[in-house]
Amino acid sequence: MTTQALPSALAAIVDDFQALTEPERLQLLLEFSEGLPELPDRLKDHPELLEQVVECQSPLFLTIETEKNDDGPAAAAVRLFFKAPAEAPTTRGFAGVLHEGLDGLTAGEILSVPDDMPELLGLTRAITPLRMRGMTAMLGRIKRKVAATSGVRA
Amino acid sequence: MPYPVEQNEKFAAYAHPERLVSTEWLAAAIESGAVANGELVVVESDEDVLLYETGHIPGAVKIDWHTDLNDEVTRDYVDGAAFAELAASKGISRDSTVVIYGDKSNWWAAYALWVFTLFGHQDVRLLDGGRDKWIAEGRELTKEKPAPARGSYPEVERNDAPIRAFKEDVLAHLGKPLIDVRSPEEYTGQRTHMPAYPEEGALRGGHIPTAASIPWARAAAADGTYRSREELEALYLGEAGLAEGDDVVAYCRIGERSSHTWFALKYLLGFESVRNYDGSWTEWGNAVRVPIVKGAERGSFPVPAGV
């Protein structure tokens, strides 16, 4: 698998990670964790609208919204929202990567991301496979929700 | 040289008060320069591999349970050579006093302490209340990583037998007390994994026959410190039914939460023989032909036919 198959923002993130040494990759993941946007108020006050991804070692909640688009749902932007505590920087970092890489794309673009994309970040050894599972699960959950909402098939 | 032991009323009631330090004590020790001059080595060990980087106790070094303490290939801990190198690189010598703390009421800190004990490190203590208490009290954190002078650590062969149980040991132990420290849902077998997430759990749900269910967190107070000796006795001697002198095995899913309980039984209540079964439910719940019990009852051993 090459990064060419990925949406451009996500491909750029993968390239950034791959250009670094292992300790630097961890530092970059930390920066992504710091850059994860806060939930908008309308979601902050309604935790029931978010779903928990239980495979993550720390509490991680997410939801998606599809923006209205005159050209139909296939062209509509899908917005991603994540919530993870500050005490869980690794989980937040993964969420930050997926947010920056996927937020605003169409359902079809998100569904085309290979399920094992997280492996491309080159973090498996430094983070360990157990912890990587959380990120794979997060991507899987996003894709299932996008598929269910949009009717577009993966 | 061992650093002086903390004296206070709460700790004095425990069987081994020398195994705990308070946040006040550690703050004073840092203030006195004991960490800066290497008399005391402070280690942070968290579940989250990046948490230390977001800010840690001044002078603390990081040891990650997974990347530093677990063998990369075999499901086992590192060997004597790797441990010696790890310790030395963190400024730890064989006779160093080491204070370990971490997130989640010291789950992983207790796990790291247990691994240090597998190597027979003499003076290793837990910071009562861990990272969360330190932060809740508004104490200093820093992102500055220390560069400690290299320690001198011999290659010590790990001695697993006294504090570590393998599956075969647990099979031979059946009939004697076991403490299951997982959540009640895991204990009853209600929860092995969630629908559509087969990776999450074990093939079978339930518990090891006769194990008492005492979720690990019940040994901790709201501020993450260990409960008082009296409270711990009510929990383990009262509710779980342990008696003085019992030979006990504790387990969870991979042996980390049960390290927290192991510490309480071994050092706070003073049970001589307590072993942590680190294979835990991820091994037992997947193993062929080992007996399990489903539901809230402890069950009996031998397991009655037809059950």
What is the mean predicted local confidence, pLDDT of chain A? 88
Report the β-strand fraction of chain B as a percent range: 5-15%
Structural class of chain A: mainly alpha
- Could you estimate the helical fraction of the residues of chain A in percent? 40-55%
Measured between the Cα atoms of the first and last residue of chain B, the distance is 56 Å
| Annotated CATH topology of chain A | Sufe protein. Chain: A
Biggest β-sheet description of chain B: 5 strands, parallel
Structural class of chain B: alpha/beta
The count of helical stretches of chain A stands at 7
- Output the radius of gyration of chain A: 15 Å
Tally of strands of chain A:
3
Q: Report the β-strand fraction of chain A as a percent range.
A: 5-15%
**Dominant shape of chain B:** globular
Per DSSP E runs of 2 or more residues, the count of β-strands of chain B stands at 9
Order of helices and strands of chain A: HHHEEEHHHH
Strand order of the largest sheet of chain A: 1-2-3
Outline the low-pLDDT stretches of chain A. Answer: none
Which outline of chain A best applies? globular
How would you describe this structure to a colleague?
The complex is a heterodimer of chains A (154) and B (307). By secondary structure, chain A is mainly alpha-helical. Chain A has helices at residues 8-18, 22-35, 41-44, 89-102, 107-111, 124-127, 129-150; strands at residues 51-52, 61-66, 78-83. Chain A has one domain (3-150): Alpha-Beta Complex (Sufe protein. Chain: A), CATH 3.90.1010. Chain B has 307 residues and is α/β, with parallel strands linked by helices. Helices cover 28% and strands 11% of the residues of chain B. In chain B, strand 4, helix 5 (107-118) and strand 5 (124-127) form a beta-alpha-beta unit. Mean pLDDT of chain B is 93; it is low at 194-200. Classes of the chains: A mainly alpha (154), B alpha/beta (307). The interface between A and B is medium-sized, with 24 and 15 residues.
